[in-house]
Design goal:
ATPase-coupled lipid transmembrane transporter activity; about 65% helix; ABC1_TM_sf; ATP hydrolysis activity; about 10% strand; single chain; nucleotide-binding; transmembrane; ABC transporter transmembrane region fold; alpha/beta
Length: about 550
């Protein structure tokens, strides 16, 4: 289970919340058991007193103390259950945030080679299903199993104190076997199946997404029905595997429940012997068996969780394989000022290209000093964006050496998120003030566009920024990059979709804004660049 270690380490960073959540769960379980046991004791006591009174014997019962106890445990169980659900659901959401942020950080620091070249559908599965499989591992597996052990030991201690040591040992043995079947045994039996199910579900999700994305092409080729039939066969295979996992979990739950009931019978039988010997009263006799019945609720949640643990481990393995903590970007050297001697970028004999393909640029050397302006011009396919990706650390170099200061990168693709203006800009600098946001919007001549909106910086931009024109979207993304104070700025086709008049007005302003920082600007021609100290042509 070493696959889970980095994620468990991340989860246990919130150990305070996890402990509080486990305590709330423990209070809920103990309140339920106490309610059952005390109610059983009270009913038995009142029945015996009623029989004695009917027989003409003197008898009495204190209705208030046990009645108050029953009401207390009923209320405490309800309140604890409510607080546990609210608190632990909030904890799960926070853990989900931690896991996704950690995953995004790893993805951002890893090159394309380390990310494995997965398709969008595959990464969607990674970021949803695989992450969801990790975020509840504590509250579905670790905490319930630990609490089941604790509650079982409490009942064994009660058997020792109220009944006998022999009964306590017998209850301990039966509960240990039931707990083993509900946890370790079901995990061992279902791990290969659960891992296979997880892999099948991921493959099916990806295939369904690709089916939807390529529906027009499938229709044009007359292959829609055949492809849909193939998906249905995959779905039936997934269902069969799911049924086998559920069957194993169900049988183990049934046997563990049977064992708990066996412990109840043993406790009742042993208690009856002690009652006949005058060592035990009737109400106390039913106290332990009824409390043991409450273990069924405790154990019932375990088989299903442990049956899915194999899939959780498989999900963790996939995430660990694709994005490994501490991975490095090929021959990329960490940028230390004393190593690059006042330069923002050094490339030596660099070859760049995508994995499995021939190098687009080979044996390329380049040095950019701090504060220098460099323009790179080339036709489509000359390798400009590939070179920019390599400089930014998105793509690992095929060969050679590269060392660069931390950079801000405007990619060739314009990406606007379905959120507000403020949220989109703060991605460039989360600490930026409203004044700084308005200043950079003025720089790209977008301030007036949003001052007229009712929500101003909180204006919703729609799906993929569909409330903006192409030029407006490009300028917004450019503003986001300009907010970043990195010493090296890479701008790939910064004025795509921006009309020539607007470009002429904003280019000098942007150039002044970036004064003192190294800037690499890439485009099809000199007119698409910021003013540069010198220009390099790629052929």
């Amino acid at each position: 289970m070493h696959e889970l270690r980095p994620w468990l380490k991340l989860i246990f960073q919130r150990r305070g919340r996890l402990i509080v959540g486990a305590l709330l769960l423990l209070v809920t379980l103990l309140s339920g058991l106490s309610l059952l046991a005390l109610s059983g004791w009270f009913l038995t006591e009142t029945a015996l007193v009623g029989l004695l009174l009917a027989a003409g014997s003197q008898a009495y019962i204190n209705l208030y103390v046990p009645g108050g106890g029953i009401r207390f445990f009923a209320v405490s169980r309800t309140v604890a259950r409510y607080l546990e659900r609210v608190y632990n659901h909030n904890t799960v959401l926070q853990l989900l945030t931690d896991i996704r942020v950690a995953l995004f950080d790893r993805m951002a620091s890893a090159g394309q080679r380390e990310r494995g070249g997965k398709t969008g559908a595959q990464w969607l599965s990674r970021l949803t299903a695989d992450v969801d499989a990790l975020d509840t591992i504590y509250l579905r597996v670790i905490a319930p199993a630990g609490l089941a052990v604790m509650v079982s030991l409490i009942l064994v201690l009660a058997a020792w104190l109220l009944f006998s040591g022999t009964l306590a040992v017998g209850v301990l043995a039966i509960c240990a076997l039931a707990l083993y079947l509900a946890t370790r045994r079901v995990f061992t039996q279902t791990r290969p199946l659960s891992a296979r199910l997880s892999d099948q579900q991921e493959a099916l999700r990806g295939d369904v997404i690709e089916h939807l994305e390529g529906y027009a092409e499938l229709t044009a080729a007359g292959r829609t029905g055949k492809h849909a039939g193939w998906l249905m066969r995959q779905a039936r295979s997934v269902s069969r595997t799911q049924a086998r996992v559920d069957s194993q979990a169900g049988w183990h739950q049934a046997v563990s429940t049977l064992l708990v009931n066996l412990a109840v019978v043993v406790a009742l039988w042993s208690g009856a012997e002690l009652f006949h010997q005058g060592q035990l009263s009737g109400p106390v006799l039913v106290l332990l068996p009824i409390a043991l019945l409450g273990l069924i609720e405790v154990y019932a949640m375990l088989p299903d969780a442990f049956a899915k643990l194999g899939g959780t481990i498989s999900a963790a393995r996939r995430l660990n394989e694709q994005v490994t903590p501490g991975s490095k970007l090929g021959n990329r050297t960490p940028a230390e000022p004393h190593l690059i001697n006042g330069n923002a970028l050094i490339m030596r004999d660099l070859s760049v290209g995508y994995t499995g393909q021939a190098a687009i640029l080979s044996h390329y050397s380049l040095t950019v000093a701090e504060g220098e302006r460099l323009g790179i011009v080339g036709a489509s396919g000359a390798g400009k964006s590939t070179l920019a990706d390599t400089i930014a650390g998105i793509l690992a170099p095929k060969d050679g050496l590269i060392s660069a200061l931390p950079c801000a990168y405007l990619t060739q693709k314009t990406v606007v998120f379905e959120d507000t203006v403020r949220a989109n800009l703060l991605l460039g600098n989360p600490k930026a003030t409203d004044a700084e946001l308005w200043r950079v919007l003025e720089l790209v001549e977008l301030a007036s566009r949003f001052t007229d909106e009712t929500d101003r910086l909180d204006t919703w931009l729609g799906s993929a920024g569909n409330r903006l024109s192409g030029g407006e979207a490009r300028r917004l993304v450019l503003a986001r990059v300009l907010l970043n104070d990195a010493a090296l700025v890479i701008l790939d086709e910064p004025f795509t979709g921006v009309d020539s008049e607007t470009r002429k007005r904003i280019a000098p302003q942007i150039n002044r804004w970036l004064e003192g920082r190294a800037v690499i600007c890439l485009g099809h021609g000199p007119e698409a660049l910021l003013p540069s100290g010198h220009t390099v042509h790629l052929y």
